[in-house]
């Protein structure tokens, strides 16, 4: 694993964790940090020892969004569209296309593009002090980095409109009620709860998890017939794995399966 300046990346067994590391600015996202994040995600995706990836933040919060000082320093003619394409889109694609589960571990604020990063992960676990805001409208912008795609799919169009148009800050409790968070725990329990989730996922067949992730992500773009054909193709692929036969044998003989990833 390469070393980085603006993210911390470490691997422990089947667990890989990437921590945003600009705590003095609540992990505000700038160009160098996003480039490093994209590379770190690619490294994790390619490392065969890693079965589950965690995205978290150092310091007092998960991520406060784009570093607006960086944008302002580029002057009024900055091409924000190109900035998104060059820095943010590769990160979002890396999270969604990674063939392994990605968990956002959230404490403190997740605002703007920081919230988008959390939404792009497959699962989200938050501490009771976590807060979320689609803050873009507060400076005259629209939600980006995938938020207009993820948000209505997770919580429905009406509530997505409300959060995007008003830019309100919502609590972890409300985020859980809406379906943005899969789990909420006391701050002191966030690390342990995340580790338990990682252990559960790490004990499951990696190829099946990758195929489930693909099937669910593609389902929103398909009609029923297309999705049935995709399920057929992916199920055939899953049935050819060694883990399928391990799982089937363990089920028949009532013992715990130990999946190999093959």
On the 0-100 scale, what is the average pLDDT?
94
CATH topology type of the largest domain: 2-enoyl-CoA Hydratase, Chain A, domain 1
Low-confidence stretches: none
Radius of gyration: 19 Å
What is the terminal separation in angstroms? 23 Å
- How much of the polypeptide forms β-strand, as a percent range? 15-25%
Largest sheet: 6 strands, mixed
Question: Can you write the helix and strand succession as a string?
Answer: EEHEHHEEHEEHHEHEHHHH
**What oligomeric arrangement do these chains adopt?**
single chain
Secondary structure tally, helices: 11
Number of strands: 9
Residue share in helix: 40-55%
What structural class do you assign from the helix and strand content? alpha/beta
In the CATH scheme, the class of the largest domain would be Alpha Beta
CATH architecture level-2 label of the largest domain: Alpha-Beta Complex
Give the count of structural domains.
2
Q: Describe the strand arrangement of the main beta sheet, using strand numbers.
A: 1-2-3-4-6-9
| Coarse shape | globular
CATH level-4 homologous superfamily of the largest domain: 2-enoyl-CoA Hydratase, Chain A, domain 1
Question: Quick recap of the structure?
Answer:
This protein is α/β, with parallel strands linked by helices. The chain contains eleven helices and nine strands. The protein folds into two domains: 7-202, 2-enoyl-CoA Hydratase, Chain A, domain 1 (Alpha-Beta Complex); 206-252, Orthogonal Bundle (Lyase 2-enoyl-coa Hydratase, Chain  A, domain 2).
């Amino acid at each position: 694993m390469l070393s980085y300046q603006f993210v911390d990346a470490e691997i422990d067994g089947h667990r890989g964790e990437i921590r945003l590391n600009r705590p003095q600015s609540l992990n505000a996202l700038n160009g160098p940090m996003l480039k490093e994040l994209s590379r770190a995600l690619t490294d994790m995706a390619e490392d065969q020892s890693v079965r589950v990836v965690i995205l978290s933040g150092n310091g007092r919060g998960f991520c406060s969004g784009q570093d607006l000082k960086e944008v302002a320093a580029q002057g009024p003619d900055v091409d924000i569209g190109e900035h998104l394409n060059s820095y943010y889109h590769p990160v979002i694609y890396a999270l969604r296309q990674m063939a392994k589960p990605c968990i956002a571990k959230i404490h403190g604020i997740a605002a703007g593009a920081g919230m988008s990063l959390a939404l792009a992960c497959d699962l989200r676990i938050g501490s009771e002090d976590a807060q979320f805001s689609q803050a873009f409208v507060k400076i005259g912008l629209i939600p980006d980095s995938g938020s207009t795609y993820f948000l209505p799919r997770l919580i429905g169009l009406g509530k997505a409109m409300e959060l995007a148009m008003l830019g309100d800050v919502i609590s972890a409790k409300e985020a859980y009620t809406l379906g943005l968070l899969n789990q909420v725990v006391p701050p002191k329990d966030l690390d342990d709860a995340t580790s338990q989730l990682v252990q559960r996922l790490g004990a499951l067949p990696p190829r099946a998890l990758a195929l489930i992730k693909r099937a669910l992500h593609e389902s929103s773009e398909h009609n029923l017939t297309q999705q049935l054909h995709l399920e057929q193709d992916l199920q055939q692929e899953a049935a050819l794995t060694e883990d399928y036969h391990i799982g089937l044998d363990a089920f028949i003989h009532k013992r715990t399966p130990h999946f190999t990833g093959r």
